[in-house]
Design goal:
Pfam families: Pirin, Pirin_C. This is Pirin. Belongs to the pirin family. By secondary structure, this protein is mainly β. It has one domain: Jelly Rolls (Sandwich). It is 4% helix and 44% strand. It contains 1 helix and 27 strands. It has a 7-stranded antiparallel β-sheet with strand order 1-21-18-23-16-13-12, with no helix packed on it. The chain has a 6-stranded antiparallel β-sheet with strand order 2-3-10-5-8-11, with no helix packed on it. A 6-stranded antiparallel β-sheet has the order 4-9-6-7-26-27, with no helix packed on it. A hairpin with a 2-residue loop joins strand 14 and strand 15. The radius of gyration is 20 Å and the shape is globular. The model has no long low-confidence stretch (mean pLDDT 97).
């Protein structure tokens, strides 16, 4: 019998996705204890500071020089869905908006017509290691929404719906619904101009945790929806009569339901689905448009305007060490958690 699975690929730092998604960046760093400046309490010699992706000692500085993370950089023409299951992210942007989020929170940012932002990873714990588990999903925008106003929305961990199901043996699987719907439970609304804001786009983003030995089912989807399952932690699963080891991207090949039997370890998955936009994608770093000419125009606009300029004292801006989880939006709205 021919398998309904299109492909099974190994996972790296950037996971391959299907239209309407562009890719998923995965960060799992076990940072050392932090110091008073929220920087690693460790010797940084031997690291390529400014471009540290070596994984030395189980963590990276990325583009940060003192605090790990990604200093100010532009985005235009797409969206980022930043799911931070462990650790914290300090967000600052060219609209004057800011926030500190993580430990289960998600930030949904529609870059649209352009925004510059920084994403730094403050190490607040000075007595224990600081673990970061962070997915950043790049979701494309259709041509009609490439230039909408930039906007971000916070989905705080306490508000994100979680569905727990039990198999015939009473073993549990949980589904954290970032986008879409599962078992008639709907996610929080995404950012207002998001591609996912239209129910017809069928965008689904779920985090799935399966107990050892448990069985669960991915429901069927409409015929024009593509979907992928990223098995990033566990032992092995059985799907469509195949045994698949951890650290694999599974591209599901038809729209029927899939029964998945977990192995002997707790398993963790990211699930993505969506209706393809089916438009030409031209990408130049953090600019995603529909033609080379539009890319040139986007780069030129950024060079002229810096998408509003940078209102913070440093391109590696971090918030005060005493701050908890919070968000300040461009319209002045404040959220504290």
């Amino acid at each position: 019998m021919k398998s309904a699975i299109k492909s099974i690929q190994p996972l790296g730092a950037q996971w391959p996705t299907q239209d309407p998604f562009l890719f998923c960046a995965f960060h799992n760093d076990v940072f050392p204890e932090g110091n008073q400046e929220m920087a690693p309490k460790a010797n940084l010699s031997g690291r390529n500071i400014g471009q540290d992706f070596s994984g030395k000692d189980g963590w990276n500085m990325y583009h940060g020089s003192k605090v790990p993370g990604f200093p100010a950089h532009p985005h235009k023409g797409f969206e980022t869905v930043s799911i931070v299951e462990k650790g914290l992210v300090d967000h600052s942007d060219s609209l004057g908006a800011a926030g500190r989020f993580g430990n289960g929170d998600t930030q949904w940012m529609t870059a649209g017509g352009g925004v510059m932002h920084s994403e730094m990873f403050p190490l607040l714990n000075e007595t224990e290691k600081n673990e970061m588990l962070f997915f950043q999903i790049w979701l494309n925008l259709p041509r009609a929404k490439k230039n909408v106003a930039a906007h971000f929305k916070m989905m705080w961990n306490e508000q994100i719906p979680i569905v727990t199901i039990k198999d015939n043996n009473g073993l549990e699987t949980t589904f954290k619904i970032i986008a879409g719907e599962f078992e008639k439970v709907k996610s929080l609304a995404p950012a207002p101009d998001s591609y996912a804001a239209d129910p017809d786009s069928e965008v689904g983003i779920w985090l799935i945790k399966a107990n050892p030995g448990s069985t669960f089912t991915l429901p069927e989807v409409p015929s024009n929806v593509d979907r992928s399952l990223f098995f990033y932690s566990g032992e092995q699963i059985e799907i469509d009569e195949q045994i698949v080891a951890e650290n694999k991207a599974i591209v599901l090949g038809d729209q029927s339901s899939y029964r998945i039997k977990n192995g002997n370890k707790e398993a963790h998955f990211l699930y993505l689905q969506g209706k393809p936009i089916n438009e030409k994608v031209v990408q130049h770093g953090p600019f995603v448009m529909n033609s080379n000419q539009e890319i040139q125009e986007a780069v030129g606009e950024f060079q002229r305007t810096q998408f509003g300029g940078w209102p913070w004292g440093s391109h590696e801006h971090v918030h005060d060490k005493s701050k908890g989880r919070f968000a300040i939006h461009a319209d002045g709205k404040i959220e504290n958690k």
